[in-house]
Amino acid sequence: MDSILNPDSPRSENSGGSGPNSSPHSLTSPSSGTGAAASSSSSPSLSRYESQKRRDWNTFGQYLKNHRPPLSLARCSGAHVLEFLRYLDQFGKTKVHTQMCPFFGHPNPPAPCPCPLRQAWGSLDALIGRLRAAYEENGGKPESNPFGARAVRLYLREVREVQSKARGVSYEKKKRKKPQHQDHQHPPPPPAAAA
Fold first, then answer.
1. Of these four, 23, 52, 58, 170, which has the most CB atoms within 10 Å of its CB?
2. Where is the region Disordered (predicted)?
3. CB atoms within 10 A of CB 120
4. In this structure, what DSSP letter does residue 60 have?
């Protein structure tokens, strides 16, 4: 399993270079069945999630190729995934205040500060979810999935806690409203009026 991509899956945008002129390609499934005569209007387009998952998978594959020494997917571990997440921090846009910063714990600081920009926890969490799914879709076994490693889960939990404290933002799961049952919610019928 040394290949990064499933040979049946088409290579996508961002696999070579990136820039303002790299636009998403109209990709079709190899099993779409209508052959070369299929028009782009009848070919199924990828959902936003599927497109993002493919871009993330290709980005991770490129990271493995550029790794020194180059690393095959089969030899990739949770430690390599953590290395990748830390590498991505340099492109982050979320201000994470240090404990020495006067704005530590403030969600909307009134002035700029020199604290570092990082990847937001929610972005990393979603990224790992997409890569975890892509790994298995591209032939990886669930029990050897490096994106599901305990170290990765612990790292994400730590990032969430640190950012929550530093930014003064709660990352608690939102409570779902209980579904209202129709038969219990109807008010009783008004009493019949006497004539």
1. 58
2. 1-51, 165-195
3. 19
4. H
